[in-house]
Every structure is written in C-alpha cells, then in structure tokens.
Amino acid sequence: MTINHAYEVSSEGGVRHWEVPYARLEHVTPEETHPAALLSLLPGTQLTGTVLTIDATLSVAVVDFTPGMVYRHTVRNVRTYNPGVAELTWGAIQIGDPIYYDRTAALAALLIFLTTSPLDLAGAANPLFGFAVDDGSGLLTWPLGNLATVLTPTNVPVLQVGTGR
C-alpha cells in the first residue's frame, strides 16, 4: 500500500490547532484562554475556538478549533438586546444551552466574548460557539447565573463546536 504524503489523516479525529494572524480575528488583541472568532463575509458564520498561545512579535495566535473540546469560559447571561441601545433580557444558563460568540463591542472591552444571545447589540447574527455542559466535578449548581433580572458573568464549561458545524 502506498501512502500519499500530501494527504495526512489521524485515526483520532484530529486536533485542530491553527496559527491565525491577529488581523483575521474579530478581537484583534487576543489573550490566552479566551474565546476567538475569525472574521467572515457573513455575520454568524465565523469559525470559533479557544486561544491557546499568542506571539505578539509576529501578531499571531494559535487557536484550538477542535470540535468537542470543553473549556471553561466566562459567559454573560444576556438573552436579547434592544437593538442599538442596551441589553434587554437575561436568563439563567442551563446544561445544553447554546453559547454564542457575541460581537458586541462593549462586551469585548470587558474581555467577555460569550453570551446566550443569538444576536449582537446591532441585531446581527452571532456565531454559535458551543453549548453549556457539566464538567463532572459535582461542584456546579445548575442553573448558572442570575435567573432573569440582572446581567451575571458566569464561569461555564463550554463544549465548543469548532470546525464541526
């Protein structure tokens, strides 16, 4: 049997760690362990993952785009926005809830990139980042965050969709 070296496969499904120039990221000053989204022609279709390392000299970040990886991220419990104005509704985060990379600039200024809102402040689609999952530690009390009245940034284990959409 001949193996074509131009095509490589992994029997484990493959880990997807790719180097990305800062200029191709939604947030152009990435930090290690933070969520990331690549720029896209169509809002809501961005490839998303978790920043593993950064090289400020070369302005590149290594991002883990592997589907099914679970990382703990700060998630804001924003459900909806009053478009162009402010956050409108909030809700507790449950196991299985979709988590979105929120493109709202105010959130980026706080270095919080994930919410439970499918639309950003401008009313454009947010890309699906992953889903809230239990980490198996027995230390999490669900639901997470405030039930419905106040914005609550919460540390949530998120199963990222990465390249597996």
Supply the number of helical segments.
1
The count of β-strands is: 11
Order of helices and strands: EEEEEEEEHEEE
Q: How much helix is in the residues?
A: under 10%
Rounded Rg: 17 Å
Low-confidence stretches: 1-7
Major sheet, described briefly? Answer: 5 strands, mixed, barrel
Q: What structural class do the secondary elements suggest?
A: mainly beta
What would you say this structure looks like, in words?
The structure is a single chain. The model is unreliable at 1-7 (pLDDT under 50). This protein starts with 16 loop residues before the first strand and ends in a 5-residue tail after the last strand. 3% of the residues lie in helices and 35% in strands. A 5-stranded mixed beta barrel has the order 5-9-8-10-11. Strands 1-4-3-2 form a 4-stranded antiparallel sheet, with no helix packed on it. Strands 6-7 form a two-stranded antiparallel ribbon. It is mainly beta and 165 residues long. The protein is globular and about 45 Å long. It has 2 domains: 17-64, no CATH class; 70-160, no CATH class.
What tags apply to this protein structure?
165 residues; mainly beta; five-stranded mixed barrel; four-stranded antiparallel β-sheet; 1 helix; 11 strands; 3% helix; 35% strand; globular; disordered N terminus
